[in-house]
């Protein structure tokens, strides 16, 4: 018999709340070297740039000493419920995941490409993956009027990981095209009046891994790095401009010297505290796509 108890997470207060999950899959053949770095960067960024209270940021990584904050499937499920619990008009919620993503055959018939997208918890080999349908039901559907969720998913096959009804794709020339992914005859995937926006590291049929190519000496996820760089370098940016700027960050790293400026300073601040992961030099970057639930 296995006993289970509900994890205890911070009491909800204030208008800002964030869940940051980084999974490195240590000692596995598919270990990632930059996922916890991504979480450390995002936490510092949310605190310093957007004034998120430290006790309103829940972090799940393998570095945590509290067993409830290890990124297992059951802890991720509980943490996602914590993120949206009792949210009200004016609340700003953030969900950030850096780790592996995958796909599986769609059995509900609500996916255009015939596949569900998934996130891989630390114990996904034994407990299974988190499927986009469950993620949508947990952190998108409960959003009521006036509540905003921003999700940042630095993982493979993550283009539609929140299963939102609309997808914005930006091509290499910077042109955006909206796609309607509604399947109302099967299931409703929108919010309950709130706003959900998701930035993903690549399309559903693409892969991405962590890299040193952007920072020069610290392994990070390309999406997380480019997002922070874009926000820090241009105040008051629109969503469209943000996507374009993120793409420019990646393109600059592919064709020229490594990035300097605000993100380099932030990395130095974060990792001066000894929070960095072990490094490697592998990287691949494909695409970003944003998902938006119009009001």
TrEMBL record:
Molecular functions (GO terms): cysteine-type endopeptidase activity
Domain of life from the UniProt record: Eukaryota
GO cellular component, one term: cytoplasm
Residue ranges of coiled coil: none
Pfam families associated with the record: Peptidase_C14
Cited InterPro entries: Caspase-like_dom_sf, Metacaspase, Pept_C14_caspase
GO biological process terms held by the UniProt record: proteolysis
Residue stretches making up the Peptidase C14 caspase domain: 15-252
PANTHER family recorded: METACASPASE-4, OS03G0389000 PROTEIN
Family note: Belongs to the peptidase C14B family.
UniProt name for this protein: Metacaspase-2
Biological source species: Acorus gramineus (Dwarf sweet flag)
């Amino acid at each position: 018999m296995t006993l289970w108890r509900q994890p205890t997470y911070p009491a909800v207060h204030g208008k800002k709340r964030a869940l940051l999950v980084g999974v490195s899959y240590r000692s596995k053949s598919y270990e990632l070297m930059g996922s916890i770095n991504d979480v450390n960067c995002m936490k510092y960024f949310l605190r310093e740039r957007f004034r998120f209270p430290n006790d309103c940021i829940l972090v799940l990584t393998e570095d945590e000493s509290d067993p409830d904050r290890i990124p297992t499937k059951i802890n991720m499920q509980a943490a996602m419920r914590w993120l949206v619990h009792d949210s009200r008009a004016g609340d700003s919620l953030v969900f950030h995941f850096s780790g592996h993503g995958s796909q599986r055959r769609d059995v509900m018939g609500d996916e255009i490409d015939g596949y569900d997208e998934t996130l891989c918890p630390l114990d996904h080999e034994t407990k299974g993956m988190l499927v986009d349908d469950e993620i949508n039901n947990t952190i998108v559907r409960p959003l009521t009027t006036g509540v905003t969720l921003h999700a940042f998913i630095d993982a493979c096959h993550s283009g539609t990981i929140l299963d939102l009804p609309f997808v914005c794709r930006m091509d290499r020339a910077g042109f955006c095209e909206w796609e309607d992914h509604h399947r109302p005859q099967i299931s409703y995937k929108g919010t309950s009046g709130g706003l959900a926006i998701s930035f993903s590291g690549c399309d559903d049929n693409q892969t991405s891994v962590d890299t040193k190519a952007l920072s020069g000496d610290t392994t990070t996820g390309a999406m997380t790095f480019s997002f922070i760089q874009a926000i820090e370098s241009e105040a008051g940016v629109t969503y469209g401009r943000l996507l374009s700027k993120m793409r420019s960050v990646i393109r600059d790293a592919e064709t020229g010297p490594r990035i300097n400026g605000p993100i380099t300073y932030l990395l130095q601040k974060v990792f001066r505290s000894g929070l960095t992961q072990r490094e490697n030099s592998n990287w691949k970057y494909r695409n970003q796509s944003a998902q938006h639930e119009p009001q």
